[in-house]
């Protein structure tokens, strides 16, 4: 005990204390590791497409094939409406946005178990890995949005679909960011739990699938019964997806109150997620 | 001198057999008491020793118990102790991979730990790309790595293969590249876990030279964990001796290493008597266990090397569900396994009830030295072999040289075993 009293005057670079506060986040340390962040993003990209035959074409093929399936099931068989927008366009928008969200969420939630071999041998701020995952997902999203834009132009030429430009479109990056933040936040919250209760990651995968049907992804909010709209609006994803479609395709509604609710919800989940993650990263290696 | 690293009253608690307290309710209760009320962990048992022989399922034990020490700038530290003494846990806490249950740790400057070579290497990336990635994982900035790139490649001796994916590397090349990155880290404290034992002899020599250079010329602090006492003696000024999770000694390396070597023999008690010991398990009881030297009655003196050693024990087999066989595992005094003998092909226990097993080694099988025995009884089930009884360190014994056949100038025979072999001369051109 006497040692610690004398040394309190010195400035230590690293202090680890078992009784440290729940709320310590080391931002200074994060900036030191920004190169690692870049290299991890790059690694994931290079490695995913290095060994596949079709390479980056998968980025386009996957949403396009899913759109075809949705066209058949929801468009033809179920006969669901899309609010006046060409169906392929509607589904493609939903699929691209949704896969960005679900990828952000599930990858973050399993970050400890996937990276356990590295985490068990070297220290670096663990949060770097989920952040690199999100950035990777974001890059894929941007590439896929280019595809969407091409499809939009096609429908503009052939089916007379109107593409409108305005200040509203500047709002889109913010909406996608919100989607990413939400996925990251919920993922971080679950990441701590999946280290302790392994079966949770299976449950989560299943839950995310169900969540898609509980959110206006493949149908517009306007097509749901009036009595359900109120319940649907508790889901922050409703406002986000409706707004994305409004600014991209010119269909749907933007309810500023609901959107504000979504913003608060997403930021709260991120803050809570970071706190829980911080707590979990200290000793997860003992339980995994 | 200013200290560069301070460890104050660090303990690390592990729970065995289960993860967490088992239920969400208990987990929540613990969290609430610790984090909100700032009270002691209700599931923490203070003062329990790290003794893995006495563990039960679901038990709580201290891997580290109240460790405090500090080291100064440029002073290297060795950590020694037997298997399971808590060395790895201490390393993990020092390198911040896991956090202590109680206590605190303060460090000046950067710390890099090398608990494994090539952490984060990706097989599909080229050597050059992996240098950057691995370097960044270990805490280097890109600029730093770029500046040292030539030196790293040069040190590794990979040469023109540097732009080949590392999946095509031989394991030697892989390790050499990984160590080169680590050797060029710009951190004040370097934590190493027996990584010196990599690569071929040439490369090992190069590594040792590099380590000495880091320590002497660049004034870095190196923390080294090794079973190799000679490496610690030559490398570290001070050493720390861990035993059962407690800090037994922290002093000049020579003193600590001597104490460690002595301790290896002091703690040794003869356990060769045929005594009533009675170990019970679900399917098997062991009623006694012991050694007879040759045909003599049981005794507890060292055993002569030229005699066969007779191990015997009385058991009670409680079920007839499966056949059983006996496994003896022999260890040296530090707990390193030497050899295993099982009765699978010669003897299987199929009848229920009490019996005595007798096993005799050939004369000269064991070399002189002190040995420990683990006893296992395995069951042969339809879906494979499973242990149904185990008792570690059931017995200790010492083997001594029999005669003065060899002169003392020759010293002792090296190694653990001294088996008899068939020797003969085939005449080719003798007179």
Account of the protein in words:
The complex is a heterodimer of chains A (288) and B (431). Chain A has 288 residues and is mostly helical. Chain A has one domain (26-287). Chain A is 70% helix and 1% strand. In chain A, α4 (57-77) crosses α5. Chain B folds into two domains: 68-265, P-loop containing nucleotide triphosphate hydrolases (Rossmann fold, 3-Layer(aba) Sandwich), CATH 3.40.50.300; 275-410, Coagulation Factor XIII, Chain A, domain 1. In chain B, strands 5-6-7-3-8-9 form a six-stranded mixed β-sheet, sandwiched between helices. In chain B, β8 and β9 (246-252) form a beta hairpin. The relative contact order of chain B is 0.10. Mean pLDDT of chain B is 78; it is low at 17-22, 45-58 and 404-409. The chains are: A mainly alpha (288), B alpha/beta (431). At the A-B interface, α1, β1, α3, α7 and α14 of A face β1, β4 and α3 of B.
Which secondary structure elements does this structure contain, and how are they paired or packed?
The complex is a heterodimer of chains A (288) and B (431).
Chain A: H1 2-7, E1 14-17, H2 27-32, H3 34-50, H4 57-77, H5 87-109, H6 111-114, H7 116-119, H8 128-158, H9 172-196, H10 200-214, H11 226-232, H12 236-249, H13 256-281, H14 284-287
Chain B: E1 3-15, H1 24-36, E2 60-72, E3 77-80, H2 87-94, E4 102-107, E5 111-114, H3 127-137, H4 142-156, H5 171-183, E6 189-193, H6 201-216, E7 221-225, H7 229-235, E8 238-243, E9 246-252, H8 253-266, E10 275-280, E11 284-293, E12 303-304, E13 309-317, E14 323-331, E15 337-342, E16 353-360, E17 369-381, E18 384-400
Parallel strand pairs in B: 3-7, 3-8, 5-6, 6-7, 12-18
Antiparallel strand pairs in B: 1-2, 1-4, 8-9, 10-11, 11-13, 13-16, 14-15, 14-17, 17-18
Helix pairs in contact in B: 3-4, 3-5, 4-5
